[in-house]
Design goal:
The structure is a single chain. The protein is of the alpha/beta class. The chain has helices at about 15-25, 35-45, 65-70, 90-95, 110-120, 140-155, 170-180, 200-205, 220-225, 240-255, 280-285, 290-295, 315-325, 335-340, 345-360, 370, 390-410, 415-420, 425-435, and strands at about 5-10, 30-35, 50-55, 55-60, 60, 80-85, 100-105, 160, 185-190, 230-235, 255, 265, 270-275, 300, 330, 365. The protein folds into 4 domains: about 5-120, Response regulator (Rossmann fold, 3-Layer(aba) Sandwich); about 130-300, P-loop containing nucleotide triphosphate hydrolases (Rossmann fold); about 305-370, Helicase, Ruva Protein, domain 3; about 390-435, Orthogonal Bundle (Arc Repressor Mutant, subunit A), CATH 1.10.10.
Length: about 450
């Protein structure tokens, strides 16, 4: 990057250009101005810039054309857009087109400075074989995932990661963080389903001394801990509706208020969320707020299940075995074939569990198909029309079978069974009590 970064400002409002130019000059940055799409395109073709800030609505076109011109350059150039207040649709369109971040009018100078500081640390080159190689596998679907992660790392847009339990959603989130401009800042992972509802607000936003019994000192929450970096909300679908409202406000205002405090404090956090559940279906069912869904799901990433990439299983198994038992362990060919034929309802997490168990049971550091002890994958029975028992009884029967199978696979380790089922330990304990499973 040049010794003195240069920023291109694109807007047809001279007053706003003056304000941004003055603000960036105080930060030691050089600026050029453009009042139209055509003028911006000409300047981009003539001069090397380190950042571009463009309005979404210009007299001769839209900011999307400026984003396209920047993307067509031979070197990466982060572009941030300025949108009218409340016009989330334009912001989403810009982010999906490759924009780095966005600001809403009227432009807040503290947010402008924070955006510029973050943007000018974006790495100029993202090699596809850098840390993303930790996502083991060369199947076409995994190559697509790697390419998408590299693109997502260049933006500041909220990302929602979907996929089955154990498919590597947190690993993907960590890679997005590590390849992006916030790599030198904290990555804070939070399991939303593991926090008691009564403690959620204080855990997320912190609290002031004396706010409640036991609050003997000021304490920051997850947002303060992740300030400047990335906050990963795992199993975000488990958030109760009351907490969803509070989270939405923080994402909109970019400020948090500690429990017991009267003033808010600004936070600069990128949000990456994940869940194995279908958020859109939960919105339709009234269990997840639609406005929060749109805030979190600006750009999505879906992690494939192991069933979708059987050719990757042998290589993934060998890598896991190297970590578990060193390079001396041999995975026999019949064991590889057995793993490739298995459905893996628990995905990579289940594969690791199976290999760890096989490593303990095998002879002479050689794992055979018999050592894997794979349980036959039984399909969930279809509901028969006009069945003789009520729907809830049928659902309880299916749920009981799934829980018992998971407990058997994990040798009645309830924590491991909860991970395998994709639920929290607390949720599994409740289900065990409700269904009368000892």
């Amino acid at each position: 990057m040049a010794a003195c970064p240069r920023v291109l400002l694109v807007d047809d409002e001279p007053d706003l250009l003056d304000l941004m130019e003055l603000t960036l000059a105080k930060m030691g940055l050089e600026t050029d101005r453009a009042a139209s799409v055509a003028e911006a395109q000409a300047k981009l073709a003539q001069t090397r810039y380190d950042l571009c800030l463009t309005d979404m609505r210009l007299g001769d076109g839209e900011g999307l054309a400026v984003i396209a011109a920047a993307s067509a350059l031979g070197v990466p150039l982060p572009v941030a857009v300025i949108t009218a207040y409340g016009n989330a649709g334009n912001a989403v369109a810009a982010l999906k087109a490759g924009a780095f971040d966005y600001l809403a009018k009227p432009v807040a100078l503290d947010q402008l400075r924070a955006l510029v500081k973050s943007a000018l640390k974006v790495p100029e080159v993202v090699h596809p074989d850098m840390p993303t190689r930790e996502l083991i596998g060369r199947s076409p679907v995994m190559e697509e995932v790697r390419a998408r992660i590299a693109k997502l790392a260049r933006t500041q847009a909220p990302v929602h990661i979907g996929g089955e339990s154990g498919s590597g959603k947190e690993l993907a989130a960590r890679l997005i963080h590590r390849l992006g401009s916030r790599a030198d800042k904290p990555f804070v992972a939070v399991n939303c389903g593991a926090i008691p509802e009564t403690l959620m607000e204080s855990e997320f936003f912190g609290y002031r001394k004396g706010a409640f019994t036991g609050a003997d000192a000021d304490r920051g929450g997850f947002f303060q801990a992740a300030d400047g970096g990335t906050l990963f909300l795992d199993e975000v679908a488990d958030l109760p509706l009351s907490m969803q409202v509070k989270l939405l406000r923080v994402l909109q205002e970019k400020k948090v208020r500690k429990v017991g405090a009267t003033a808010e404090e600004a936070v600069d956090v990128r949000i990456v969320s994940a869940t194995h559940q279908n958020l859109a279906a939960l919105v339709d069912a009234g269990r997840f707020r639609q406005d929060l869904y749109y805030r979190l799901n600006v750009i999505d990433l879906v992690m494939p299940s192991l069933r979708e990439r059987p050719d990757d299983i042998p290589g993934l198994a060998r890598a896991l075995l190297d970590r578990l038992g060193g390079h001396r362990v041999v995975l026999e060919r019949d064991a590889e074939r057995a793993l490739q034929a298995y459905a893996f309802p628990g995905n990579v997490r289940e594969l690791e569990n199976i290999l760890e168990r096989a490593l303990a049971l095998c002879d002479n550091q050689r794992i055979t198909a018999a050592d894997l002890n794979l349980a036959p994958c039984q399909p969930v029975p279809a509901a028969a029309p006009g069945s003789t028992y009520p729907l809830q009884d049928y659902l309880d029967q299916v749920e009981r079978s799934a829980i018992i199978e998971a407990l058997e696979q994990t040798r009645h380790n309830k924590t491991a069974a909860a991970r395998l089922l994709g639920v929290t330990f607390r949720s599994l304990r409740y289900r065990l009590e409700r269904l009368g499973i000892e």
